[in-house]
Specification:
mainly alpha; two-stranded antiparallel ribbon; binds iron/sulfur cluster
């Protein structure tokens, strides 16, 4: 059963969805399009304390934040990172 967690990242409440959407999605992209783990972690820590985060999705842009935060060209629509 999927746990509902409003302020959680996808990896925190659905391992299956995290692997299917985030891991598989990011693995299909060129490495040069991705930031390093330190930067994506910094970005995601800001998302984790943001009131726009809802079950891994940003309510401001509709993206899965774990994907957006991993992209070199990814931006926060509210300028938080
Ligand atoms: S991308 Fe920005 S607005 Fe969206 S959840 Fe993360 S910090 Fe909040």
């Amino acid at each position: 059963m999927t746990k509902i967690c409003t302020r959680c990242l996808l990896k925190d409440f659905s391992k299956e969805k995290y692997e299917a959407i985030v891991i598989n999605g990011l693995s299909s992209l060129p490495k040069e399009d991705l930031v390093d783990k330190a930067e994506s972690g910094r970005r995601l820590s800001l998302c984790s304390s943001c009131d726009k985060l809802n079950q891994g999705t940003c309510l401001a842009c509709g993206c899965f934040v774990e994907i957006r935060a991993a992209l070199v060209k990814g931006i926060c629509p509210y300028g938080k990172w």
